Amino acid sequence: MTVHSTSPQFKQNAARALNDDQLQKALGNVKQGFIDKRQMAADKLPEFEALRDSARDIKNHTLEHLDLYLEAYEEKVKASGGHVHFARDAAEARDIILSICRETGAKTVTKGKSMISEEIGINHHLEANGITPVETDLGEYIIQLRGELPSHIIAPAVHLNATQVEEDFRRVHTHLDAKRDLSEPVQLLTEARAVLRERFLAADVGITGANFLVAETGTSIIVTNEGNGDLTQILPKTHIVLASIEKLVPTLEDVSQLLRVLARSATGQELSVYTTFSTGPRRSTDADGPENYHVVILDNGRSSMLGTAFEEMLRCIRCGACMNHCPVYHAVGGHAYGWVYPGPMGAVLTPSLIGVDKAGHLPNASTFCGRCESVCPVRIPLPKLMRHWREREFERHLTPATVRSGLQLWGFFAKRPALYRFATRAAMGALALAGRQRGRFAWLPMAKGWTKYRDFPAPQGETFQQRWTRERKGARA
Amino acid sequence: MSAMPFPARPEKPRVGLFVTCLVDLMRPSVGFAAVKLLEDAGCTVEAPVQTCCGQPAYNSGDRGTTRDLAMRMIEAFQGYDYVVAPSGSCAGMIKAHYPELFEEDPNWRAKADALATKTYELTSFLVDVLGVTKVDASFNGAVTYHDSCSGLRELKVKTQPRRLLASVEGLTLVEMKDSDVCCGFGGTFAVKYSDISGAIVEAKAKNIEEAQAPTVLAGDLGCLMNMAGKLSRDGRPVQVRHVAEVLAGMTDEPPIGAAKADAIK
Fold first, then answer.
1. What CA–CA distance (Å, rounded) separates B37 from B6?
2. Which of A315, B11, B125, B258 fits as disulfide partner to B120, beta carbons 3.0 to 4.6 Å?
């Protein structure tokens, strides 16, 4: 673990997020933007549901034979003149990348969007060693200026409004005319393009992530909408691909299936604007491309998920549909989750990578509404996996004592029907009497969590079983 | 075993009503509305002694207690042709989750499968199994309908309540925005993460009021109590009822969270 985690303070993070008006306004865009677009894209493709099945099957097959595909991939990359480095954890990955940068004599490094680079905290590490990393995805660039983590895996700056971005650009781009007009989003975009263009040309190393690594050909694939990934990997002398082990896919045919569900699930596009395939360094006949091609493959705890219930999580292709459809994410945004991966996929993955003792809140902070699972392009049963985490917590006695003792008390009665009927009859009778006048309670002892935001409806009085026995079975109760 | 699924529907099906613990304790009138609907549709209804399906334990990670309670449910209901619950959440617990509780126990697994096969949410049972197309009820005014999550996504309950509501004399259905989005209840979630739950139900309450129907209906009492509690707390004048009450024409009781005096006005 490298990036500092505030997941243990999830509740405080969430409370702060709920009181942040600026953030709440920005989150409104998530609710409106992504959902309808995905639905329209899915509706337009009759085979979309069947494609989700085959996407799931492709990933399952790959995970079952991951060792073989990793080896095959490594051989193909070597054959095309590239290098493959396996990193057991974040520290190893950082060291590998730093030493490649040093070999190249790099002063600046451009970066395409990569969640793995956030996971290993590479920017901080490079800076600490005198190398300047420059994020080139617009959203990533903005949050780099702000010193923040992404709040969404495909829309890293979705928590911000245009006025905040304008302030950041005026603060950082001091070489530009202070009186320039930045009131339109397109003006912000144009400015970022101009600033970044110089950075692209100056960079010694380009680091990108990968959406897929193809075992058949040794190819790494990125999808972007801005074209920044292409400039990042083609212009510098050295290209480093940073990816985790579950990005492996057997063949190009498999990739073409996965690409059909990826963009549709993410943004509702049929395909992203750019889908870029890179295989090895520049060949003598190529017009351009890097002289050196490195792939760093990160494990960081993932291989220990193989063969467990959580293996299904490794199917994830990082489309972000789960968080786009999550009511909890809509309410608190991505930063509240306290680490790199937010939303339902983060609620399952984060405990696997940094420990459930630290990230225990995340799988609990779900209503199990199931909307995430209903849109997941690779059919990951996210609520089921969150429940698995709750079971692990319960087994390890990490469940809060109040919840545990409450459950115990309730379980005691629920297992004893006669006692249960007696106790509930008395309790409901008393509660109904107390609530008769208003029909609800604004406050109840031991129900503060409920009554803080809503009234508690009063019961009708007699329980169903009591009345049923009285009316239908004779007056024995 | 007598609990195997039936190849054909019996003429007068014996239905075990799983009333659910919330209806049992908080709003028995919903249970009696379900009984009326089932009897009108030609069923014999019985309500065996019961407590809870175990979902609170299940979703809190306590599999041991869940299994204990599931075994009690399986035994209590194994003799019926069908088991029907006025709740998508509790029916979903039995249908979608009981079998996986007994993955290592073939004997109980078979019993759980048998129970899962014959268990239904109320409106889905009426429409999908019994083929009911209309109910004998009237209701004066517009209603809006909230799709509770488990019923919607685990059991595909979406058109069934709407089809039955369409047959209620005098009733018009007005769809709210995001009717299929969670109300923020989530069982113990509402208490454990009350700040987040409060924000989610606030958005839901707004959507309900903006639909401009005087009444909101749903098929799950947990969600209904959550929405009713928020609507009254925020002073949004919308009445809240379980869909079964309206379908059965049993709306004499005050709405959820309202006093008798409120209902008369």
1. 22
2. B125
Query: What is the third-level CATH fold of B14-128?
Result: Rossmann fold (3.40.50)
- The answer to whether position A309 is within a domain reads no
Report how far residue A315's alpha carbon sits from residue A212's, in angstroms, rounded to the nearest whole number: 12
C-beta atoms of A454 and B54 within 8 A: no
Tell me the CA distances in angstroms from A406 to A422, B57, B174, one per residue in order.
19, 10, 40
Establish if A269 belongs to a structural domain: yes
Judge: A407–B201 Cβ closer than 8 Å, yes or no.
no
Instruction: Write the pLDDT tens digit of every residue in A49-75.
Output: 999 999 999 999 999 999 999 999 999
Q: What is the pTM of this model?
A: 0.95
Would an 8 Å CB–CB cutoff place B54 in contact with chain A? yes
CB B223 within 8 A of CB B29: no
Nearest to A331 among B187, B199, B226 (CB): B199
As given in the structure block, the two tokens for residue B109 are 């697994």
How many domains are contained in chain A? 2
Please judge whether B192 and A449 are an interchain contact, meaning their C-beta atoms are less than 8 angstroms apart. Answer: yes
- Domain boundaries B133-264, CATH class: alpha beta
Rounded Cα distance, B47 and B45, in Å: 7
A206: helix, strand or coil: strand
| Structural contact between residues A343 and A266, judged by C-beta atoms closer than 8 angstroms | no
Tell me the residue range of the domain where A179 lies.
Answer: 7-303
Q: What is the ipTM of this complex?
A: 0.94
